[in-house]
Structure formats: structure tokens, C-alpha cells
């Protein structure tokens, strides 16, 4: 706080930043909460013989946002795992991640870091089918890679460590990056896996399709069931609400502090002004008592006895207004006659 009572630049920056961050966090929370609400409101449809008739009766042969659970089955071809025998699936993702240690100049520690250096995802068309084999209806999953929460199963994982020679170890210490090796993983969505899909369900050419929904709704494919998927989204929304709340609290505390400082400063100034007024009134009363004229008071005269020279500096306020006998005669606790501040120390003033 500057002495003129205006908030300092740092305080204004803090207030503006915390307000802006709160607004951003809150908008993220609102988006998450909207996702949770639309997930709750999504129509739960089971894969059974009635599915086609439900869709053909629906407007546009479409349910804009539906939840279905089913078993993964390939349409024609399947993908085989490149590492594990007898493992077949419909989505296969190969990832190469480089693991290295990076020197942090601030904390002076080596931190592990992993970066994806290569990723390839293969897919083949697949359906979600009923657990009951007698049900012939199935749902074709369209553009599955656009779905969120598609946590594939890791079918293979290996680590290829980097060979270290003395010369490149030294160069790593100089550069601040030490490679550890390459981690290779294969993840798959396997046949027979239970999947929950949330998206737009349409009937097109007698084929039921699950596809990315419109109107900004989120497309989900998950190996979790509907309740777990919803629970995960809810806890995510709660987390963002908590973050927004904490940041909002910081903004409120900053604002409160700025207002409180301004209010106390104003109150102090008012008190100083009224003390000065009282002091002047007291001085006029003394002059009337002594039957003196204002012009008759010598310059630098003690403001209490109006005759002796001022010889005391009051600290911390710094006022020079009385002679020593008048200072000694002040009632306890001793206060400056001009501003009413408590007198901490007195320094004698020598006029040469
Ligand atoms: Zn005096
Ligand atoms: Zn004073």
C-alpha cells in the first residue's frame, strides 16, 4: 500500500490475476459440470431386439445422446497383437516413449521425463453386441479414436535401456539431459471386452451406428461401466470446482485486504485532522486566557505555554511543538499535542 492510500501495483496485479484465473477455472468447471449433467440425462438404451424399432420411431431415426453397453466384436477382420500370441482386438496402439533424466536448474535435481517419440494406432471396424448371443442386433462404432476416456489395455511393455559410455556420460552431464532408454508399449481394445459407449445413436440403412454427438456433447468409449464413467466425470468436476473456489477465495482475500487498508488509512487521517482541530482550539483558548494576540506569539514558541522555545522532537511522529517543561507536564501516557500519537522517545533540539 502506498502512503497516498492507493493499492500498490503488486496488489492490483495479484487481484487481477486471481480474478482472471478464477474465471478461467470456473468456466472449466462449468464445462465439466455440463458434461456430467448431459451424461446423467443421456438415454440408457440396451442392445436388444427392440433397438431398431425404438430408433425407427425416434425423430430422424436418431437418439442425440445415448448410453449403450456391449461386447466388442469385429465386423470382418481383426488385429493380432504383434507381441502376444492369441491376442486379437479391434484397436491396436503402438507407442515408443523416450525416458530421460533432465537436470532442473532451479531445484538442482535430476527429474524423470518421458516423451512420446512415435505413436501409431490401427483400427478395424467393430460392433458392440449384446451379452446374449440370441440377440442379432449390434451397434457399429463410428470414429472410435475421437472418443475420450478410451483407456486401452496394455498387452505388451518392454524397456530398451541406452548403453552408456564414459564419454557420452560426460557430455550428458554438460548438456543436463541423460537418456535412460526407450519404453515400447502395445495397447489394445480386445475382442469380447465390455465397453460403454456414449454418443449419438442413429439408424441408417438398417444399420445401428454410434457416432460422435452434436451440440458440443462429448463422445465417450470406456472399458468402465456407466456408473464408474459418471463417477469419474463427477470427481473431475468437483476437483475443478474446488480449484475455482480456492482461487476465488484468494481474490476475495486480496480485495478485502486492499479495502481494509484503505479504510484504516482514511480513519487514521480523520483522527489526525480532528486532533489538529482540537489542538488549535485549545491553543486559541490558551491565548484568550493569557489575553494574547496571535501575532504576539513569537515564532518557534512552545505551543502549550506559548512563550518558551520549542526544544523537543517527539518520535515517532516527528512533531516539534513543546518546550521541555511542558513536555514533562504532559499527562501520562504522554501523547503528542498535535497528532495524539503516543510519544515513544524524545530527542532534545538544540537551536544554535
Ligand atoms: Zn512550553
Ligand atoms: Zn505529533
From TrEMBL:
Q: Cellular location of this protein?
A: Mitochondrion outer membrane
Q: Does the keyword Hydrolase apply?
A: no
Source organism's superkingdom?
Answer: Eukaryota
Q: Name one GO biological process term.
A: protein ubiquitination
Pathway(s) per entry: Protein modification; protein ubiquitination
Q: Which UniProt keywords apply?
A: Coiled coil, Membrane, Metal-binding, Mitochondrion, Mitochondrion outer membrane, Transferase, Transmembrane, Transmembrane helix, Ubl conjugation pathway, Zinc, Zinc-finger
Q: What is the membrane topology here?
A: Multi-pass membrane protein
Q: Which GO terms describe its molecular function?
A: ubiquitin protein ligase activity; zinc ion binding
Catalyzed chemical reaction(s): S-ubiquitinyl-[E2 ubiquitin-conjugating enzyme]-L-cysteine + [acceptor protein]-L-lysine = [E2 ubiquitin-conjugating enzyme]-L-cysteine + N(6)-ubiquitinyl-[acceptor protein]-L-lysine
> One GO CC annotation, please?
mitochondrial outer membrane
Quick one: signal sequence residues?
Answer: none
**Coiled-coil intervals in this record?**
265-293
Protein's UniProt keywords contain Phosphoprotein: no
Which EC numbers characterise this protein's activity in its record? Answer: 2.3.2.27
The RING-type domain is annotated at 302-340
Q: Which PANTHER family match?
A: MITOCHONDRIAL UBIQUITIN LIGASE ACTIVATOR OF NFKB 1 (PTHR12183)
Record's protein name: RING-type E3 ubiquitin transferase
Amino acid at each position: 500500500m502506498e502512503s497516498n492510500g492507493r493499492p500498490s501495483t503488486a496488489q492490483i496485479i495479484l487481484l487481477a490475476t486471481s480474478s482472471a484465473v478464477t474465471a478461467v477455472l470456473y468456466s472449466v468447471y462449468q464445462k465439466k459440470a455440463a458434461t456430467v449433467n448431459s451424461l446423467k440425462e443421456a438415454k440408457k438404451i440396451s442392445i436388444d431386439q427392440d433397438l431398431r424399432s425404438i430408433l425407427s420411431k425416434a425423430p430422424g431415426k436418431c437418439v442425440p445422446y445415448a448410453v449403450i453397453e456391449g461386447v466388442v466384436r469385429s465386423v470382418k477382420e481383426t488385429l493380432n497383437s504383434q507381441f502376444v500370441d492369441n491376442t486379437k482386438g479391434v484397436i491396436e496402439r503402438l507407442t515408443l516413449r523416450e525416458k530421460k533424466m533432465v537436470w532442473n536448474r532451479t531445484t538442482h535435481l535430476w527429474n524423470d521425463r518421458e516423451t512420446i517419440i512415435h505413436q501409431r494406432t490401427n483400427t478395424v471396424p467393430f460392433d458392440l453386441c449384446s451379452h446374449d448371443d440370441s440377440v442379432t442386433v449390434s451397434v457399429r462404432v463410428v470414429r472410435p479414436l475421437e472418443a475420450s476416456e478410451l483407456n486401452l489395455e496394455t498387452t505388451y511393455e518392454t524397456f530398451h535401456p541406452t548403453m552408456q559410455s564414459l564419454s557420452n556420460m560426460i557430455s550428458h552431464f554438460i548438456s543436463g539431459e541423460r537418456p535412460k532408454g526407450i519404453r515400447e508399449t502395445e495397447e489394445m481394445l480386445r475382442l469380447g471386452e465390455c465397453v460403454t459407449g456414449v454418443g449419438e445413436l442413429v439408424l441408417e440403412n438398417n444399420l445401428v451406428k454410434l457416432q460422435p454427438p452434436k451440440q458440443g456433447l462429448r463422445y465417450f468409449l470406456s472399458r468402465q461401466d456407466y456408473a464408474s464413467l459418471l463417477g469419474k466425470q463427477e470427481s473431475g468436476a468437483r476437483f475443478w470446482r474446488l480449484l475455482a473456489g480456492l482461487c476465488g477465495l484468494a481474490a476475495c482475500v486480496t480485495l478485502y485486504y486492499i479495502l481494509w487498508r484503505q479504510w484504516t488509512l482514511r480513519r487514521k487521517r480523520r483522527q489526525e485532522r480532528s486532533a489538529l482541530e482540537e489542538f488549535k482550539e485549545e491553543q486559541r483558548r490558551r491565548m484568550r486566557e493569557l489575553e494574547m494576540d496571535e501575532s504576539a506569539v513569537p515564532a518557534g514558541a512552545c505551543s502549550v505555554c506559548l512563550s518558551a522555545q520549542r526544544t523537543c522532537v517527539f518520535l515517532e511522529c516527528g512533531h516539534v511543538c513543546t518546550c521541555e517543561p511542558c513536555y514533562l507536564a504532559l499527562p501520562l501516557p504522554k501523547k503528542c499535542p498535535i497528532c495524539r500519537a503516543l510519544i515513544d522517545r524524545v530527542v532534545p533540539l538544540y537551536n544554535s
